[in-house]
């Protein structure tokens, strides 16, 4: 079993009020020089092998449901591949 991660972020030209609020809070706490943009992370467990066809299916799901592509962009990353069966 593998985990595929879909990271969704506001496009650079879109205002990010949540990220701005977090940035301001960090500055008030003494964490200077940090700028935050807040997004979403979806972890998808995939049964079987992660093939290019499967990744295309996940990209389509992200484009259709997980991200609002008018204001957000996304990337799809294979995070981990489980060890083969038969591990003692």
Automatic annotation (TrEMBL):
Keywords attached to this entry: ATP-binding, Cytoplasm, Ligase, Nucleotide-binding, Purine biosynthesis
Gene that encodes the chain: purS
Subcellular location: Cytoplasm
Family that this chain belongs to: Belongs to the PurS family.
The protein's annotated pathway: Purine metabolism; IMP biosynthesis via de novo pathway; 5-amino-1-(5-phospho-D-ribosyl)imidazole from N(2)-formyl-N(1)-(5-phospho-D-ribosyl)glycinamide: step 1/2
Summary of subunit composition and partner proteins: Part of the FGAM synthase complex composed of 1 PurL, 1 PurQ and 2 PurS subunits.
InterPro entries (UniProt xref): PurS, PurS-like_sf
GO molecular function, one term: phosphoribosylformylglycinamidine synthase activity
EC number(s) per entry: 6.3.5.3
Source taxon at top rank: Bacteria
One Pfam family, short name: PurS
Main localization category: cytoplasm
Reactions it catalyzes: N(2)-formyl-N(1)-(5-phospho-beta-D-ribosyl)glycinamide + L-glutamine + ATP + H2O = 2-formamido-N(1)-(5-O-phospho-beta-D-ribosyl)acetamidine + L-glutamate + ADP + phosphate + H(+)
Function of the molecule: Part of the phosphoribosylformylglycinamidine synthase complex involved in the purines biosynthetic pathway. Catalyzes the ATP-dependent conversion of formylglycinamide ribonucleotide (FGAR) and glutamine to yield formylglycinamidine ribonucleotide (FGAM) and glutamate. The FGAM synthase complex is composed of three subunits. PurQ produces an ammonia molecule by converting glutamine to glutamate. PurL transfers the ammonia molecule to FGAR to form FGAM in an ATP-dependent manner.
Any one GO biological process: 'de novo' IMP biosynthetic process
Designated name of the protein: Phosphoribosylformylglycinamidine synthase subunit PurS
Cellular compartments per GO CC: cytoplasm
